[in-house]
Design goal:
The protein has about 80 residues and is mainly alpha-helical. The chain has four helices and no strands. The chain has one domain. The protein is globular. The chain starts with a helix and ends in a 10-residue tail after the last helix.
């Protein structure tokens, strides 16, 4: 698959999970690989701070989506 096709596939994935991604984020995710990205979205690394709510203020869309999954949609604050 070409890099352009990889970017399109990753952009589609990120739109489907509900947040989309910037070109820079897409480039990082393509470098990480599709399977690894899906796995990280489903099961974010445990070394991230834990808490009862997630706040996405000032984070990337990918990090925000991971927080939404981790805290089962219990968001505090705003998404910018």
């Amino acid at each position: 698959m070409s890099h352009k096709e990889d970017l399109a596939l990753m952009a589609h994935l990120m739109r489907r999970v509900g947040f989309g991604a910037s070109r820079e984020e897409l480039e990082q995710l393509v470098a990480q690989g599709y399977e690894a990205t899906v796995e990280e979205l489903i099961d974010p690394p445990q070394d991230r701070p834990a808490g009862k709510t997630a706040c996405c203020y000032g984070t990337s869309l990918v990090a925000c989506y991971q927080a939404v999954i981790r805290y089962r949609g219990n968001l505090a604050g705003c998404i910018t």
